[in-house]
Amino acid sequence: MADPVCLVSYHEIGLKGKNRRLFEDALLLNLRTALDGLSLKHLGRLQGRVLATFEDPADTRLAPAIIRQVPGVARVMVAWRCARSEEALCASAIAALSEAGPFETFKVHAKKSNTDFAMHTLDMNRVVGAALCEAFPDKKVLMKAPDVTVHVNIVGGDGYVFCDGVRGVGGLPVGTAGKVVSLLSSGFDSPVATWMVGRRGACVCPLHFSGRPVTSDDGEWLVRDILEALRPAGIAGRLYVVPFGEVQRQVALDAPPALRVILYRRFMFRVAERLARIEGAKALVTGESLGQVASQTLDNIQAVDDVVEELPVLRPLIGSDKVEIIERAQELGTFDLSSQQATDCCTLFMPRRPETHARLAAVRAAWEALRPEPLVQGLLDSIEYIDLEGCPSYRPPRSLSERHSDLSPAKVV
Ligand code: ATP
Ligand code: MG
To answer: 125 near 149, Cβ under 8 Å?
Structure first.
């Protein structure tokens, strides 16, 4: 009798030498969390892969679509785990190939690890290959680049037989790269940027600036829906929301109109850096892409970065075209949400002619004239948060829970 199981492979973690165990532990923890809704029975290492088994065999079929979204996963296969006998291996290979989808050509690839199984892998290839030729008489064996490869692995006392499976998102397990604060709007770009740093192993604290109390909280709800769409990736620990409308109003009243957008961004970045210090985050992240809009010229990027004192500002999309970003947003399920128009702080008090090539000296002068420090402190004092599910490596900062102990998730609603 063979039973279906999931096998998960993870190329890049394998390259991490001494840290390998750390990366594998993080991956296991994240997978366990992602699979929370299914009847997981066992999750553990198996010869350079992860093995997952389920109480309910139907869950084995549902799991790959979830597992493939977890950063660090290179591939997910549904495998037949069977006895090491020739008959069992051949029967499992026929079952696996029957489920492989449309194909014309195939080959068998046998491998043994950590086992006393006597049969040579070349003989395994031959025997299983012959059984498959008999079962699929109109299909052809092709050694170079076949449509499907049937893998026959003997690991310890068991056989595992599987086809190519589905590709995972790759990257590294969330939590292995430290924390970042990501400036998240409800637009197309920043959700993709947020996901990209998460895929490289960062645990992300999204930070959203709302136009509240001047605008409604529509944008905040969109951001929450966007984070819900990203939830299977398990990248985001805690969402922070800053009611930004009043400070924007003040900037609009007191500062040169052309510099407004840059000054709004400077407030955002300054608050983000302070929050990063509280959170122990080591970088800020934005969804900017060079030249995409007026605020994203090199001059303006410099004029905004100037306000950040220590931390690097990561811009994963700086060299991406809008088409590529949109494609990724569609894959991630954030596209439709970002397409919705929400009145948020981005549309609030926009100047008719924003500066596209700001001079640093002028920006600094306008900034100082606003006496920004008490405003920044006020924004930090009014920060709200909601803890998100699905990111087990996230550790909340102690100082903030003390300072904002009265803020419950309901406060953000
Ligand atoms: P996006 O599609 O991410 O909204 P955009 O193309 O609209 O980006 P900008 O409006 O110039 O570009 O914003 C640049 C970056 O500033 C965003 O990618 C995001 O990281 C940050 N940002 C903009 N608005 C907000 C906001 N309301 N809250 C948090 N971050 C924001
Ligand atoms: Mg935007």
So the answer is: no
